[in-house]
Write a structure and sequence with these properties.
The chain is an alpha/beta fold and about 240 residues long. It has one domain: YjeF N-terminal domain (Rossmann fold, 3-Layer(aba) Sandwich). It is built from five helices and nine strands; from the N terminus they run E-H-H-E-H-E-H-E-E-H-E-E-E-E. It has a nine-stranded mixed β-sheet with strand order 1-9-8-7-6-5-2-3-4, with helices on one face. Helix 2 packs across helix 3 and helix 3 packs parallel to helix 4. It starts with 8 loop residues before the first strand and ends in a 7-residue tail after the last strand.
């Protein structure tokens, strides 16, 4: 690899948030602080790409993406991996018309770069799951459900973005179907349902530029130096629940 790897710091006790609390964090970021979705998506995707390269060393990663913010982060990761010389393929979990404006922008960038984009999955040596984010309600449906089923039949490891698709981030209840990941890179803070869930695998947390003070609205105290040594940390024990 041409980039030096920064050792990932291990942490053992940081607060976890529910889905509704994470929604409020996102609102604070966008409405109060004017840190836009595009900026957070870029941070998420870059950190996902770095973790994918450092932890799994793929040569032919396949990125499965949904039509929302989670899929947008996956497409950012695909762009970075392609720029680092990897043979990246992107698989769409929804029809193009369903993509929101910001994810659609990321898709347009990939296609202008010449990254392979398809609706049909083919196995890679690492599968990045960016199909469904933290806002899932109920079981996955449609093409996303089909791709989750496809992932279950593959031998290559799976790295999920924010949450394994199909897992309720608040309760930890597994949907039908659900991704079983080898590792999960959750964003900003652990989610209560991820801690201890077997589908999560190794649990990492990525910095997407959320100020620690954003959590004070619900009485949580996030360590101000959590990402002082790097933009990704690994959580190895139970987090405090709100």
């Amino acid at each position: 690899m041409t980039h030096a790897s920064v050792p990932i710091r291990t942490v053992t006790d940081i607060p976890a948030v529910t889905m509704s609390q994470m929604r409020e964090v996102d609102r604070i970021m966008i409405e109060d602080l004017h840190i836009e979705l595009m900026q957070m998506m870029e941070n998420a995707g870059r950190n996902l790409a770095r973790l994918a390269r450092q932890r799994f060393r793929p040569e032919h990663p396949v990125v499965l993406v949904g039509s929302g913010g989670n899929g947008g982060g996956g497409m950012v990761a695909a762009r970075h991996l392609a720029n680092w010389g990897l043979d990246v393929r992107v698989v769409l979990g929804r029809e193009r018309e369903a993509f929101g404006p910001v994810p659609a922008h990321q898709l347009d960038v990939l296609e202008r770069m010449g990254v392979e984009v398809s609706s049909r999955p083919e196995p890679g040596d690492l599968h990045l799951d960016a199909l469904i984010g933290y806002s899932l309600v109920g079981d996955p449906r449609g093409r996303s459900a089909e791709l989750i089923g496809w992932l279950a039949d593959q031998e290559a490891p799976v790295l999920s973005l924010d949450t394994p698709s199909g897992l309720d981030v608040t309760s930890g209840e597994a949907g039908d179907p659900v991704v079983t990941a080898d590792a999960t890179l959750t964003l900003a803070a652990p989610k209560t349902g991820l801690v201890g869930a077997r589908q999560v695998g190794e649990l990492y947390v990525a910095d997407i530029s959320v100020p620690p003070a954003a959590y004070s609205a619900f009485g949580l105290s996030m360590p101000p130096d959590l990402f002082a040594d790097g933009a990704v940390v690994r959580l190895v024990s139970s987090s405090r629940r709100p």
